[in-house]
């Protein structure tokens, strides 16, 4: 089981846990404000943009080419941007904190 | 106004449009009750994967639910699944279920979508294992039939996105797939010939046979298989037939309600119909696009979700106007196609091939100097920036777009 803290744009912090699917789905299940996942998780809409805390970056790792291309020209993109639909929820990411972009 | 607690909002159709509307309505502050009807019994799910990852997934049990069941409870959305609305009356503001039960509404939302066209081909009632591809029931039936089939021969009638995606997915499952398209090329209705040829080659390279100019005129069941005859005398055999020749908008209820129809249910920029208390959203609507300055009917998740939010905001008095540049995607084999904009009316096509990237090409559709649409194959940058250029009516240098030695950036094509 991985425990994940989402901090939404209105600074509300929600701790959720999961052990399957992707982070976007987990956010939707827990109604995290600002995560929409309109395309259903196929890296096509960029409505599930999050920032990973720098100290958690190695746990999650960088985006693949398609994902980084989706993000590259977004004004909100930082060095720690990811699309949450592309992050699998496993024990490996237990304890991370992410901010909704 | 955010709906007194005594008010009722009824939604007909619990798919991308209806479900997103229900949640959006709560978010906008609606205090009344929300009843969400669908004739399908399955917890509302994502449709695009049906012809893509769901069809060829190992684990067939997992459905891609739009929201988990708990979310409906949390937001006090009453899901009424497996119930078909048989009629509606605008004067009394009521809807009636198939079983005769009647409900009163203060606001009614038509999110009835569309149904697959079943063409009137001679012998269509005599063949076995013939399926449309619109619902989870169809996808499961196709998979089950393929499992049972020994020859694993599948014929797909119609080379649109759904037909081509289904072809790619069934191929991956070990089927021998033939696509029969009536037009001289696949995707004829939506893309330029160059794009059609790209996809024809992609399927050819993956050993899926695509035959164009094939008007299927007769179907028959013979020797435990289906025989498909075309107008040019050619004959194909298939255990399974998938029909993907387009959709018909579900407008029967709208007709009963006396709403204005025009190739779909006519809505204004807030998704309101010709009746003050009835809104319509998603595939069943026809709306005016300020950007393209014309009425359009879209079949896409983006349109369903965006219209859902617009309608919810408007009903709660936070009026918003719909003017999004349409976007869409399709996944076939290792190719991701992303589309932004509408190609209708283009008179010039600019093709760009990324040399540094495999199978990455983009088609830029112009009407004179205005960019109308971009079809981007494995090229998210072209898709994202294309959308931005379309929205802002940015003037672009077509020669620079063509030149793949110039990287795609927000300013490199100016
Ligand atoms: C196989 C497939 C692949 C697709 N791929 C993509 C894609 O990659 N990208 C994309 O953007 N779009 C894709 N689409 C299109 C997208 O799924 C539709 O645009 C979207 O589903 C429209 O949503 P909707 O809610 O408007 O209508 P629908 O999804 O058609 O839902 C309408 C619902 O209303 C219900 N209903 C109708 N009448 C009644 C009644 N009288 N009583 C009760 N219930 C009723 C129906 O049962 C249905 O569930 C795909 C569609 C299919 C079928």
UniProtKB/TrEMBL annotation, chain A:
Which PROSITE patterns does the annotation name? 2FE2S_FER_2
Task: Tell me the cofactors it needs.
Answer: [2Fe-2S] cluster
Return the InterPro entries for the record.
Answer: 2Fe-2S_ferredoxin-like_sf (IPR036010), 2Fe-2S_ferredoxin-type (IPR001041), Adrenodoxin-like (IPR001055), Beta-grasp_dom_sf (IPR012675)
GO BP of this protein: P450-containing electron transport chain
Keywords for this protein: 2Fe-2S, Iron, Iron-sulfur, Metal-binding
**Family the entry assigns:** Belongs to the adrenodoxin/putidaredoxin family.
Q: What is this protein called?
A: Ferredoxin, 2Fe-2S
The source organism is Cellulophaga baltica
From TrEMBL, chain B:
InterPro entries, A to Z: FAD-oxidoreductase/Apoptosis (IPR050446), FAD/NAD-bd_sf (IPR036188), FAD/NAD-binding_dom (IPR023753), FAD/NAD-linked_Rdtase_dimer_sf (IPR016156), Reductase_C (IPR028202)
PANTHER family for the chain = APOPTOSIS-INDUCING FACTOR 1, RIESKE DOMAIN-CONTAINING PROTEIN-RELATED
Q: What is the lineage of its organism?
A: Bacteria, Pseudomonadati, Bacteroidota, Flavobacteriia, Flavobacteriales
Provide the GO MF annotations for this entry.
Answer: dioxygenase activity; oxidoreductase activity, acting on NAD(P)H
Required cofactor names: FAD
Oxidoreductase found in the keyword field: yes
Which Pfam families does the entry link to?
Pyr_redox_2, Reductase_C
Alphabetical UniProt keywords = Dioxygenase, FAD, Flavoprotein, Oxidoreductase
Is-annotated flag, keyword Oxidoreductase? yes
Entry-linked Gene3D superfamilies: 3.30.390.30, FAD/NAD(P)-binding domain (3.50.50.60)
Write down the superkingdom of origin.
Bacteria
Residue ranges constituting the FAD/NAD(P)-binding domain according to the UniProt record: 9-308
Pinpoint the Reductase C-terminal domain residues: 327-407
One GO CC term, this protein: cytoplasm
Any idea what this protein is called?
3-phenylpropionate/trans-cinnamate dioxygenase ferredoxin reductase subunit
């Amino acid at each position: 089981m991985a425990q994940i803290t989402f901090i939404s744009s209105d600074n509300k912090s929600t701790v959720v846990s999961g052990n399957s699917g992707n982070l976007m789905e987990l956010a939707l299940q827990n109604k995290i404000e600002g995560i929409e996942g309109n395309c259903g998780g196929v890296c096509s809409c960029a409505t599930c943009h999050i920032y990973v805390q720098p100290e958690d970056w190695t746990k999650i790792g960088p985006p693949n080419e398609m994902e980084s291309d989706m993000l590259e020209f977004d004004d909100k993109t930082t060095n720690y941007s990811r699309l949450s639909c592309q992050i699998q929820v496993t024990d490996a990411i237990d304890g991370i904190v992410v901010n909704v972009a | 106004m955010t709906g007194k607690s005594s008010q009722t909002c009824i939604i007909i159709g619990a798919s991308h449009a209806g479900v997103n509307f229900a949640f959006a309505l709560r978010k906008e502050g609606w205090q009344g009750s929300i009843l969400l009807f669908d004739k399908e019994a399955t917890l509302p799910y994502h449709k695009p994967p049906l012809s893509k990852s769901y069809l060829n997934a190992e684990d067939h049990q997992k459905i891609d639910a739009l929201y988990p069941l708990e979310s409906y409870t949390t937001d006090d959305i009453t899901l009424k699944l497996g119930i078909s609305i048989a009629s509606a009356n605008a004067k009394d503001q009521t809807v009636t279920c198939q079983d005769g039960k009647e409900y009163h509404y203060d606001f009614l939302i038509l999110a009835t979508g569309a149904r697959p066209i079943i063409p009137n081909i001679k012998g269509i009632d005599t063949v076995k294992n013939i399926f449309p591809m619109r619902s989870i029931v169809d996808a499961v039936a196709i998979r089950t039939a393929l499992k049972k089939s020994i020859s694993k021969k599948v014929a797909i009638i119609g080379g649109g996105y759904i037909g081509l995606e289904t072809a790619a997915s069934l191929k991956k499952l070990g089927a021998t797939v033939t696509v029969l398209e009536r037009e001289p090329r696949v995707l004829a209705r939506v893309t330029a010939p160059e794009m059609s040829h790209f996809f024809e080659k992609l399927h050819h390279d993956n050993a899926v046979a695509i035959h164009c100019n094939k008007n299927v005129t007769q179907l028959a069941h013979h020797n435990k298989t289906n025989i498909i005859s075309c107008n040019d005398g050619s004959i194909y055999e298939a255990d399974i037939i998938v029909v993907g020749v387009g959709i018909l908008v579900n407008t029967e209820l709208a007709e009963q309600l006396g709403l204005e129809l025009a190739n779909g249910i006519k809505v204004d920029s807030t998704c309101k119909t010709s009746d003050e208390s009835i809104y319509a959203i998603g595939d069943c609507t026809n709306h005016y696009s300020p950007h393209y300055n014309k009425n359009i009917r879209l079949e896409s998740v983006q349109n369903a979700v965006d219209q859902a939010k617009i309608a919810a905001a408007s009903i709660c008095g936070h009026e918003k106007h719909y003017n999004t540049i349409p976007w869409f995607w399709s996944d076939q084999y290792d190719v991701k196609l992303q589309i932004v904009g509408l190609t209708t009316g283009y008179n010039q096509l600019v093709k760009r091939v990324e040399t540094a990237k495999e199978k990455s090409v983009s088609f830029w559709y112009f009407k004179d100097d205005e960019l109308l649409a971009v079809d981007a194959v494995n090229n998210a940058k072209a898709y994202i920036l294309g959308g931005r250029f379309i929205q802002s009516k940015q003037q672009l240098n077509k020669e620079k777009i063509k030149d793949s030695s110039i990287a795609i950036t927000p300013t490199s094509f100016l």
